[in-house]
């Protein structure tokens, strides 16, 4: 089969080159965007008198037929036609003859593919956005159930201070909320129409780029034809957004892997979101969480691959840029695969409240509250810090928790300690006396949940 660009060539491309050069196996997923872009382009060509109006109508009608035939599974794409653009144009020309040959007037595959990938990724961003909103809703629903579930908070993976599970969950709400904002920002920079840039230098035809942009739902058009065909910042930016989303899921997954171990036993994953061992009958493995953690590296790799591909490319379009599709497609697919199963995994897990509370009582998580107690009694904080440090050392030597110390033992460290110390350093007081904005007190977390619910009504 002769290539649509074969006029300048005296011999056919090698079969291995055809296979090597072809992108149809992965860019065929953009068929809808390619056809919709071509429909808008053909309409504009007819409106502008660049091609006969009757040819424009014929092209538009047949492109819509081709779209339906693709979705009905009646069309098989050809490797020899290289990519989705040439495949559709070839089918169109075979069906309507010379009129189909006019479709490519005033455009290049360079600006055509830039259009398609922008449209495709905007559609995908919208879908991932809805998945993120579901994740946010899942976190809020779970947090509402655990505003009184006390657990240890950690720094350096060492027990630090008591918080609530609701407070912990709402930390991830904030992360995914930022992810949503990043996606929205990324979409703004993706929502710019490059068609009309031509191969690199625009065109002499009187194209109405604004009409095509409006017809396709773009907010603006690119302002430089060189940049219009060679920009893939939006692809890299989306890969970065997706990497951060995966990082947030991976962090929580790592915690769930730890928490579901016998050593922590804070949560138990639902049977439907766990697997067993082929040799050890007692095992219940958090494989879903582990796979999310593992797939995070896959998405990171795509981001690095895209950055590396683009770093040495001079203006304007180069064939290297064909390598943008597979990484971003797989990154999108991976996030869309992980987000729903992540939400179902956390929604169905069993939270072991008693074990969380027990865990918060170990590791001297109320030590800071003892220091704060002494400060409120008039001791400078640095002196209080030193006193409590000695108190902790004593408790370790005698295998006691701080709230197990007798009043006589407390008095050995400071005469200003009174009986009210026991209430001041209880887990409930340690949590609920922390009432500054963003802290874990029940009333503060409930306000945060209410704010989150109001936010979700607006997105």
Task: Give an overview of the whole structure.
Helices cover 62% and strands 5% of the residues. The chain has helices at 15-21, 24-27, 31-47, 53-71, 84-96, 98-101, 109-144, 165-190, 209-216, 225-230, 233-259, 287-310, 325-348, 353-361, 367-376, 381-397, 407-413, 421-424, 427-432, 442-458, and strands at residues 150-155, 158-164, 192-193, 220-221, 267-268, 350-351. It contains 20 helices and six strands. 40% of the residues are buried. It is mostly helical. Strands 1-2 form a two-stranded antiparallel sheet. A hairpin with a 2-residue loop joins β1 and β2. α3 (31-47) crosses α9 (209-216) and α7 (109-144) runs antiparallel to α8.
Brief rundown of the structure:
The protein is mainly α. It contains 20 helices and six strands.
């Amino acid at each position: 089969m002769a290539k649509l660009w074969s006029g300048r060539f005296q011999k056919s491309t090698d079969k291995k080159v055809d296979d090597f050069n072809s992108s149809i196996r992965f860019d065929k997923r953009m068929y809808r965007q390619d056809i919709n872009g071509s429909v808008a382009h053909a309409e504009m060509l007819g409106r502008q008198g660049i091609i006969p109006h009757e040819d424009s109508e014929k092209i538009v009608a047949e492109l819509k037929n081709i779209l339906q035939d693709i979705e009905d599974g009646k069309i098989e794409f050809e490797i020899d036609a290289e990519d989705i653009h040439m495949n559709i144009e070839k089918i169109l020309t075979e069906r309507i003859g010379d009129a189909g040959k006019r479709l490519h007037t005033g455009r290049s595959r360079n600006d055509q593919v830039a259009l398609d990938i922008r449209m495709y990724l905007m559609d995908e961003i919208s879908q991932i956005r809805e998945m993120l909103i579901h994740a946010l809703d899942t976190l809020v629903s779970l947090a509402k159930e655990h505003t009184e579930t006390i657990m240890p908070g950690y720094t350096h993976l060492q027990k630090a201070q008591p918080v609530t599970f609701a407070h912990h969950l709402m930390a991830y709400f904030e992360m995914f909320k930022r992810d949503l904002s990043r996606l929205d920002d990324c979409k703004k920079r993706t929502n710019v129409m490059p068609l009309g840039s031509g191969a690199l230098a625009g065109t002499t035809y009187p194209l109405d780029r604004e009409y095509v942009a409006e017809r396709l739902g773009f907010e603006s058009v690119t302002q430089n034809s060189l940049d219009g065909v060679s920009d893939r910042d939006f692809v890299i930016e989306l890969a970065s957004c997706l990497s951060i989303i995966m990082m947030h899921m991976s962090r929580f997954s790592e915690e769930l892997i730890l928490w579901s171990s016998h050593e922590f036993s804070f949560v138990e994953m639902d049977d439907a979101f766990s697997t067993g061992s082929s040799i050890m009958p007692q095992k219940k493995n958090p494989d879903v969480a582990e796979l999310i953690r593992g797939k995070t590296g896959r998405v990171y790799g795509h981001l690095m691959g895209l950055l590396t591909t683009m770093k040495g490319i001079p203006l304007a379009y180069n064939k290297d840029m064909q390598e943008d599709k597979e990484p971003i497609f797989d990154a999108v697919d991976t996030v869309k695969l992980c987000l729903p199963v992540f939400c179902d995994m956390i929604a169905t897990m069993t939270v072991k409240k008693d074990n969380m509370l027990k865990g918060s009582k170990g590791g001297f998580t109320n030590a800071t509250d003892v220091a704060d107690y002494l400060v409120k009694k008039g001791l400078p904080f640095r002196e209080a810090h030193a006193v409590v440090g000695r108190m902790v050392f004593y408790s370790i030597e005698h295998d006691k928790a701080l709230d197990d110390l007798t009043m006589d033992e407390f008095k050995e460290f400071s005469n200003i300690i009174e009986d009210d110390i026991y209430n001041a350093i209880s887990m409930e007081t340690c949590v609920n006396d922390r009432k500054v904005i963003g802290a874990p007190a029940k009333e503060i977390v409930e306000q945060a949940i209410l704010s989150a619910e109001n936010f979700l009504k607006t997105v």
